[in-house]
Design brief:
Blueprint (H helix, E strand, L loop, with lengths): L5 H25 L7 H8 L20 H5 L13
Length: 83
Amino acid sequence: MEIPNMKTRLILVAILLAAIAAGAWYWFAVRPDPIKTPEDIAGAVTTPNLEVPSNPVQNKVPELNPIDRANPFKDAYKNPFEQ
């Protein structure tokens, strides 16, 4: 594969160097430390205790019956034959 233009070749080399630099930065700086001792294992496996209520929507749901809301004309019409 020949690259015809020198400018294109320089751009590809710059992208390749940036990718290598990013990989080296991740490898040496960002990567977490490995687990070495039993205390590290216990710390990694143990999750913090979070207090979550059993009903998260407690006292936040309106008391509406969906069957009562299903007919919007419930009180609009009075049956003349009904006594």
